[in-house]
Amino acid sequence: MQLKIMPKKKRLSAGRALLILFLCQMLSALEVPLDPKLLEDLVQPPTITQQSPKDYIIDPRENIVIQCEAKGKPPPSFSWTRNGTHFDIDKDPLVTMKPGSGTLTINIMSDGKAESYEGVYQCTARNERGAAISNNIVIRSSRSPLWTKEKLEPITLRSGQPLVLPCRPPVGLPPPIIFWMDNSFQRLPQSERVSQGLNGDLYFSNVLPEDAREDYICYARFNHTQTIQQKQPISVKVTSVDELNDTIAANLSDTEFYGAKPHRERPPTFLTPEGNISRKVELRGNVLSLECIAEGLPTPVIYWIKEDGTLPINRTFYRNFKKTLQIIQVTEADSGNYQCIAKNTLGAIHHTISVTVKAAPYWIIAPQNLVLSPGEDGTLICRANGNPKPRISWLSNSVPIEIAPDDPSRKIDGDTIIFSKVQERSSAVYQCNASNEYGYLLANAFVNVLAEPPRILTSANTLYQVIADRPALLDCAFFGSPLPSIEWFKGAKGSALHEDIYILHENGTLEIPVAQKDSTGTYTCVARNKLGMAKNEVHLEIKDPTRIIKQPEYATVQRGSTVSFECEVKHDHTLTLTVTWLKDRGELPSDGRFTIDKDHLVVADVIDDDGGTYTCVANTTLDNVSASAVLSVVAPTPTPAPIYDVPNPPFDLELTDQLDRSVQLSWTPGDDNNSPITKFIIEYEDVMHGVGLWHHQTEVPGTQTTAQLKLSPYVNYAFRVMAVNSLGRSLPSETSEQYLTKAAEPDKNPTAVEGLGSEPDNLVITWKPLSGFESNGPGLQYKVSWRQKDGDDEWTSVVVANVSKYIVSGTPTFVPYLVKVQALNDVGFAPEPAVVMGHSGEDLPMVAPGNVRVSVVNSTLAEVHWDPVPLKSIRGHLQGYRIYYWKAQSSSSRNRRHIEKKILTFQGSRTHGMLPGLEPFSHYSLNVRVVNGKGEGPASPDRAFHTPEGVPSAPSSLKIVNPTLDSLTLEWDPPSHPNGILTEYTLKYQPINSTHELGPLIDLKIPANKTRWTLKNLNFSTRYKFYFYAQTAAGSGSQITEEAVTTLDEAGILPPDVGAGKVQAVNPRISKLTTAAAETSVNISWEYEGPEHVTFYVEYGVAGSKEEWRKEIVNRSRSFFGLKGLMPGTAYKVRVGAEGDSGFVSSEDVFETGPAMASRQVDIATQGWFIGLMCAVALLILILLIVCFIRRNKGGKYPVKEKEDAHADPEIQPMKEDDGTFGEYSDAEDHKPLKKGSRTPSDRTVKKEDSDDSLVDYGEGVNGQFNEDGSFIGQYSGKKEKEPAEGNESSEAPSPVNAMNSFV
Q: Where are the residues of the annotated region Disordered (predicted)?
């Protein structure tokens, strides 16, 4: 039977509330199925998934990207309209559409202007099932116009008078942010007396002499274009009464002087708004900002009230010293009259602002996608509200419904479309448009008529684990059209589940309200509609809940003592348990005094801060439980008030009812010291076997003063008792009288019994002896018994004492034995002991592995096979097989020499193994031996094999010597590992031009017996790159590379006395190479002559070795270098090289490490090249100073950023491209970005145009500039290299605002 659907209005628990959330997600999945496999063959009308905002303000310096993304099956095609007409993107070379998408990119960076692409755009996504449309996207270019030219006269007024400094910023898009600063870029301080209005003007309720200044500057910050414009400075002069009297004295009679009172006080009047009543209209959801600024003396204070109502508490905020009232998320209920009251000591004045809240359309019910099967009914509801009431209009596939193709299954009733008995042709995308004078809403909703058999989307065989007595939710996400019915079954042949125990939710989920152990099992979900059936199995496991069976207890302890909290947890053994301790719901202090040991938290040396709530939290993957206890820390007080301490020790211990295996102990408790005794701890001492060692016997509650104690035989007992309260444990009581129990036979036998042979003819039996306490009587001995496992022999026994080992001699080699060890004393025997199996001793194997075969896999790997030896010949536990192999003779050398043998062991009974790491082109021999616990058996006959040739290693070295005008000579050493017979060398080389591009590659073969080769007919003064490698019959080896440069002309290679008196090109030359070696280091110095732009390097290696030279790059300003980490007493070869555009040269030397010796160093200050370099640097600095001085005298630019950073004003902090904050200002005329720092090319050469000392890198593009009208143009530094320069007048295209307010 099908289960009953859960009532929709049933009260749900928190867990079921989560289930309903999941249910809603699954219902939406019917519109857009979540399973990607289902999407592959499910036809679906288009759905707009991403689009640009309705009001899209673009940056004119960047390409325009208008987003339009949609999904559907088949994938939709896209088209655009612009200003209501078709936009043919193919005819505009600057417009491209992203493949598989409707997103447009307009490339105005390469050509074109942003203003020419302003307008209203709309995207349409269409497939065979319908057409969806985007909002009207209004594209407008951001603007940051300059202030219009105006002549500002200085303002002079008397102290105490009001003042309004107008800002009147240019109209930008979007509107700018206004702030006032002085000429030093300091934010002007604001207060109840001086403040900035919402319109940007600066209001003074009354002026004071300190307000006089000549640099009141209004700034407009345009965030979208990352620019700042500034108004011309305004000069304000404030005259005092004394200054006025001086002026009058010079022109008027003495009777016309002002009085002694410096300011004339007056009641408040409003500077803004004007009049007694004003009106304000705001849209629902916006921020309502009301402003009142008053003048007066003393400075008035502003108050706000709402007539016939109260201000909303959580949405009301006061700004600008209460001169601005803001209400966020304004609603129609916020309409009404608001009063601002300005008051000072001379009177009060009020102004009423009548607020009307209008509303752009907002959704009451937005239309939702419909998935119907043929013949079904459905409705689309589009219900919106607004003020005024919005008008609802419908479109079908982007065409007004009135002129769309007729559909007999469709009926329109205002804001509702009713569908009756739909057919597949009824599929379409409907658009609902709700609009009024303040905006519009557009929603796409498709009707998709599908006939689909049921499909279950939940993964098969999903495992659910639930804690017992909790709800279990088994998913069965499904899809089908018509909507399938769902049934659940338990077990392979079970009947449908009944509704009295289970609940079936609308999304197919089966809920077991209270899962029990018997709920475990396999459940089957079956989905059916008239087109078919689908089913899926899931599995449910019920786990035991986690429980804290011993909770931490409340504790009161003294400062400095130790406290322990216990938390014993029981959980389902199949789940992983984690126990965490918290203090006051936070982590434990990171203090070594807190330790966690198994189930206990121990706090040592308690301090006052340790007091609080300690919580033990036990977590598994399915549940968690916790328990808490409070720790109270008390301090000893010097007053005679009650002393809280550990109890006094008990006394008067007495033993009664003395039996063989028990005795009764009674005692008298000591004083509990104002903390009740919670328990008594009883310990015992075995006077016979362990004097002075006390052992735990038992614990009893604090209300009990007697205990029945269980005893062991033949033990001389003595007892003591300790009392425990909340503060700790008392001292031990006095020891009770001794009680010796009667002897008895042992209760147990020795443990850890083993039988192992140490020699081929013995069996060593060992065991762990009993302690004196376990002996139960005098005369403890052991009966050791043994016999062969596979024989019919009787047990052989021997009785021993005071030992834990017995050796049986004369045994056969490696034979299984059964052994047992039984304890006995003077009273009798222990119970029959357990029998364990052992083996007599092993001997070396007798037989070598046979039929050893070797298969060579490649030049470095071989595989070895052998036949196993008979098990009887192993004479022990088989450990494995061991291969010995060694290199006997190299095929490239006729001198036979042996090297050290290598060993590989293969565990167990394997009969094959791989030999890795062999040397190519070599003779090897090997043998195989079997290994047991005793050692190796005899070796098999040696088996020889030969590895084939391999590719050689790289040549050991490669040097280029004797460069001339058209030739270079190469010298090299053969590979250190030829791995075969060298057949030839291959040399490839190619020229490198000045831009580091590689020329054609030339290939040259060189005989294998050569170690030197000269290349001729090369280009003069040209850099070449060489690739050099050796070859054997197996192929080519690794290559070594090098670069070299031919000389500029023949003069570069003439002897010094040739060509004297004529101008020659200077080639690099290194001389006077000296080394000063210590034990593990060396200092190397040299002298260099030649061009300055060269790169020095030091190469070194062990003298006489074939290893490659190690190379270190040297700073080109140094003529010395130190090497460290060398081996003492070793001869090294060293080579210093210099490489530049006109050639390269090197010098070599040999040194030996040893005792440190003084190095000969060259005085760098006397070198000509160094003096020349310093002169060049000084000349460059002088030129920079002259340039800076000239530009500074022009007065056209000044460093804005440094002044702003120094004062750290939050309104003018640097803006970065990422977050819209300020960066450095740049000249608005050239708009050039700062050049990046130049980088040295990979070949270490430095091009002239990339010099680090280039004046461009010290550029002036970050300084602002004043235009003729005095306005400041500052553009933040960014990634754009150019943008159109703006004129002095503000000219803007009219914005298509109506397109944002009404869709049609």
A: 1199-1304
